[in-house]
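Methods — Computational structure assignment.
A single polypeptide chain was analysed. Its primary sequence is given first, followed by the predicted tertiary structure written as structure tokens.
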Amino acid sequence: MERLLMDELQKWKNKKGRLPLILKGARQVGKTWLLREFGKNEFDDVLYINFENAPGLKEAFDGDISPNRMIDLLGALHGKRIQPQKTLMIFDEVQEVPRALTSLKYFAEQAPEYAICCAGSLLGVALHGGTSFPVGKVEYLTLQPLNFEEFLHANGEVGLIQFVIKNGLNEIPKIIAEKLTDYLKQYFVIGGMPAAVAAWLDTRDYSIVEDKQQDILETYVNDFSKHAPESIVPKLRYLWNSVPSQLSKENKKFIYGLVREGARARDYEEAMLWLLDSGLLCKVSRITKADISLKAYEDLKAFKLYHLDVGLLRVMSELSPNAILDGIKIFEEFKGALTEQFVLGELSGKKFIRNIYYWTSDATAEVDFVFADNTDIYPVEVKAGENLRARSLKIYRERYSPKLAIRTSLSNLRLEDGLLNVPLFALFNLENYLN
């Protein structure tokens, strides 16, 4: 499958002063495949080590971890010489061997000519657990599930992607819009987990796709018992299972009482941090004022929790794949939660967007998302269907007078009076629209 992050990996390879790279992302989003494909396409040779499946390697990093010693040792394991610039070394599940993480510091300082990429599904969890980390000596990229553009590419629809990009701010012809809407419905059901997308491409059978999604969810739940502290495992399960009901509310602010009766914030903070660090959930905090900098106005006690993937959220919410046949109802079911989940996924993968928040005012108005680029702040109102009434966005615009406000819906592309309506299926082109 075409992954847009491959371009960023190629830039990293050719960068002057390149540092070892850490690829972050939840389990099963395709990190290992992407790094091995990158190595196959861009290097003469690839040394791949999975520290989770090779416990004996931990001893190799217990002693001297200078680059000279490690290159000789890893070369002996590899059975051939590791060559500067020509061999890509991939350390997978690197959080399992903290000293391997520490060694990156020495590679950065003493042997920058060697190319090292690391991946770790639970890297964030390990770091919060006190693992020593080479601060300032590594670079980061984050891989998420396939976004809608990548989903279109996987379905062979490069022509649709190029049309949207080249069309500029012109209205999208109905025949193109309808085709893109059909793909969007599919994406809401299938989501962007590579295994689920591959199952769809191979079989075109939603029941097989759902079986694959259930397998992924079961793997995540098994990870709770396997990797999390025993004391928080029950809390992880309660919190994880509460996400669909949290998002089904009209007001999607996270409420601890919905996790379990009598639940309090301090009881679930560690479990929530574990789920956030593992990449399974995404936290969107409220801001009290839309002004530079947004971070300064963050309300730490008010936030929403979203899922990793729209398809997995659909399965956890027990929404049947058959909903795809019911016109546009799939966008409106579940109080528009799937649509908000989709929009967050599209926004959070954009490099030009720094952090994403939401805004409320005196319980009278709520704007679903607010983000900033280097110069401006943009409010984003999410409409599940074609009903474009946006009272909250009107209140926000009257108060803050943004240069541009964004509404995303099933309605066609248009710009009028400082309000840009972007079809849900064209959000992948948002940066070009703003430019």
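Note: The longest strand covers residues 298-307.
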